[in-house]
Design brief:
The chain is built from 14 helices and no strands. By secondary structure, the chain is an all-alpha fold.
């Protein structure tokens, strides 16, 4: 048997390869363009807001709450697999070697989120508080320490309690972390240190309890499966993930939409495609998420050019992915037994995608109604969708 540190390292390399394989499909050209414009527009609006922000703006409590909540989500990346419940059982006494590597990766892969949010908030702190540069960076160091405590705390809690009532643990850590960060931002460093010590004592208690407990392989395996499944579902919005099968939900609250499809054999495929789009999680949530992103940009970014570019890029992404998803169904369907024209499904998919994109255009257009020439957003979404449908492969 290999050293358990080597086992972790080999699994980690496989995990990185798996992530990179799908990330190349996620961060494509149009997504990169959208991100550049989003970051640019967001930075511009943030800088403009800082010029007019009131001196009594509650920056300290807001930052403490946001960063504190980000810190508490420290789900361990164990990379354990289902067979490990049997094959690693004889090595239970040495699993600390494995988990030390796992927790190190968990820390470094998660700490940057809270750190980045805090760094972005530094200009706000300088605008509305009297904090010195030293105080600001001492708080940054405190955030790093709290993240380490959070990673160790959630792991030991899950280990000792077998994953039961994790939300209680997170609630307790949230109170401690928010208090520590707020006190530090108020330059009450002694109180911040006391809160940090309380947090440390809290996780040490569960660490001691976990020593006498067997490794909860079943919980960590399930946790890892759920984590990877979340990634695969996200990747499936951008490319086909072979071993992922999207779940089906009725969504009875949308049943009224089927009434708009006329009854008759000429509309069979249109009815089936509409049901497929509404009831398949992958298809429906793809459209819903991209529409929501476009709508939020239109509502909160007061730069029409940015809204048009983002709306156009997401219109292209939504159209091409919906079209491919609805056309490439490889399962046997009962309608294949009936003498329907060969292009019937292709025409039905085109019609349903057009209706979905018109709906997206209306929603985004309403959200952009406060902008000049907001109607151009609707024209751009519909126009790019129609162009994408025509030039993309059937």
């Amino acid at each position: 048997m290999k050293n358990l540190r080597d086992v972790w390292s080999s699994r980690f390399m496989h995990y990185i390869g798996e992530v990179q394989k799908y990330m190349q499909f996620i961060f494509t050209g149009h997504i990169a363009i959208v991100l550049v414009f989003l970051i640019g527009a967001g930075g511009y609006q943030y800088s403009e807001w800082l010029k007019v922000v009131q001196a009594d703006f509650p920056a300290e409590i807001l930052i403490a709450v946001i960063v504190g909540l980000l810190l508490i989500f420290s789900r361990p990346t164990s990379l354990l697999r289902e067979p490990d419940q049997v094959y690693l059982l004889p090595l239970e006494s040495k699993m600390s070697q494995y988990f030390s590597k796992a927790l190190a990766w968990t820390f470094w892969s998660q700490v940057w989120v809270a750190a980045l949010v805090y760094i972005v908030s530094i200009p706000l702190l300088k605008a509305v508080t009297d904090l010195t540069t030293l105080n600001i960076w001492l708080v940054f160091l405190l955030i790093i320490v709290l993240k380490y405590i959070s990673v160790q705390g959630e792991f030991n809690y899950r280990y000792s309690e077998r994953g039961q009532l994790v939300w209680v643990d997170r609630l307790i850590r949230a109170v401690i972390f928010v208090a520590a960060i707020y006190m530090a931002l108020q330059t009450q460093l002694l109180l911040a240190i006391i809160a940090t010590v309380i947090g440390t004592i809290y996780i040490v208690a569960f660490r001691k309890k976990s020593i006498s407990e067997p490794v909860p392989y079943e919980h960590f395996v399930k946790l890892e499966q759920n984590r990877m499944m979340s990634f695969y579902r996200f990747a499936n919005y951008f490319t086909d993930v072979p071993h992922l099968h999207g779940s089906i939900r009725r969504r009875s609250w949308l049943d009224w939409l089927y009434k708009f499809v006329p009854y008759g054999k000429d509309h069979t495929q249109k009815y089936l495609v509409l049901r497929t789009f509404i009831r398949t999680d992958d298809h429906f949530y793809l459209w819903l998420r991209l529409t929501a992103i476009s709508a939020l940009i239109a509502a909160f970014v007061d730069i029409p050019v940015v809204t048009w570019i983002v709306a156009g890029a997401l219109s292209f992404a939504t159209t091409i992915q919906l079209k491919q998803a609805l056309l490439t169904s490889g399962e046997f369907r009962m309608d294949m037994l009936y003498p329907l024209p060969d292009n019937a499904r292709r025409l039905a998919v085109k019609q349903i995608v057009r209706l979905a994109m018109i709906t997206q255009a209306v929603i985004v257009g309403v959200c952009a109604i406060t902008q000049p020439m907001f109607y151009l957003t609707i024209v751009i979404i519909v126009g790019i969708s129609e162009l994408t449908t025509k030039i993309s492969k059937p």
